Fold Monooxygenase 1.
Amino acid sequence: MDEQFQLRKQRDLDPLSIFYRSQVHSQRERERKREREMDGREAKAEEEEEEREIVIVGGGICGLATALALHRKGVRSVVLERSETLRATGAAIGILANGWLALHQLGLASLLRQSSLPLQRAREVWLDKGSTKETSFGHGETRCLKWSDLINTLADALPPHTIHFGCQIVGVLIGCDGTNSVVADFLELKPPKAFPLSVVRGLTKYPSGHAFAHEFVRMRRNNIMVGRIPIDDKSVHWMVGQQSTPKDARALQNPDLIRQSTLPLIDGFPPEIQQMIEDSDVESLSLTRLRYRAPWDLLLGKFRKGTVTVAGDAMHVMGPFLGQGGSAGLEDAIVLARCLYQKLSEVNQIQSRSQMMMHKVGEAMDQYVKERRMRVVRLSMQTYLTGLLVGPSSMLVKLASIVLMVIFFQNQNDHSRYDCGLL
Ligand SMILES: Cc1cc2nc3c(=O)[nH]c(=O)nc-3n(C[C@H](O)[C@H](O)[C@H](O)COP(=O)(O)OP(=O)(O)OC[C@H]3O[C@@H](n4cnc5c(N)ncnc54)[C@H](O)[C@@H]3O)c2cc1C
């Protein structure tokens, strides 16, 4: 955990004061502070404005979407990102119907549609058995977006100076800091657990165009799964799922090593698959050990302390089996911004620095957690059971998973029917 953050925690500082006096240790902020100090009245006005800022930790999909949702409602926030640039961690990301509804609320759906193909169906291919099954994505549209397109579009829609890179965090309000969230630690949430599975992801460009159908194909052979999704006419996102091994840790930071260790796994897959991975853009390669926050921890977890809460993977990291982690983070952003806006609107200017305001922020977060809890418990449960089915579990566990799936998730595509509502 961040040293300074821990220091604050040990001193047991009121998180509310952290929220209102967030210190951003970036060169730009220090310069701005100096400028304000040199300038009388204008400085005072700006200081007051800054004191109203909400601090979001993490500039991933959920952090940027939360900042944008707040901005659309006229509420200022800053995003603190530890990297020096926006990170494109997963090459590309599938967005299902519920994710598009959230993007629509953010005003970005039409723009993002321009850089991605609508996918018509999903197809499972078992190379060992020689059988194929077509499935649908269920309700509404599904597209695959380049990670950089999604992240950059969210960031470009934010007002200037909202994102602060390479920041040392001394306090937090909304933790969108992903799987290893320091904010989740602050909230004393149980650490995420690991699936015994790892996934390599990448992008391959086809300068003269590819001829793949507009579908998400998953091929399986010898416990290896290869997935392929076209993004547009010239680029394809792919993933290779395998049982995790100790070697994964060595490959984690080295894209060349990731490719070298992936190629032998796909022996026996069709030649176009091997070619796709050989020709992949090395910079896009990443290897992820799959983690999840257990559904029962989501059901019982306390997701607010004072005015500190979490969203996105920091709250509900889940396996990628439903392709819903990112979209669930977009939904969080809409619901959290809506709750904060509603409660903050009830406070007038005179009250704005008082305990009343802090109380309202706490209420807004409770409302957000209440609205989100069962949605993410269900998503996480379905993902967990799917993970047991596709992973290396015993026959008994697989059987129990099927029974629970039949009881709780009769329509397996219902998860994409969810509408997070208006911003
Ligand atoms: C193999 C795989 C495939 C997936 N496919 C899909 C899919 O098709 N569709 C889908 O919807 N989802 C998918 N997901 C899930 C999706 O990628 C995540 O749910 C989503 O990226 C989470 O976004 P986030 O913003 O919450 O967290 P992250 O993307 O993890 O962003 C967290 C950010 O916080 C920053 N940060 C971390 N700690 C700190 C700190 N202390 N201070 C400041 N900054 C910090 C990080 O640098 C990072 O930029 C997939 C996941 C995996 C592993």
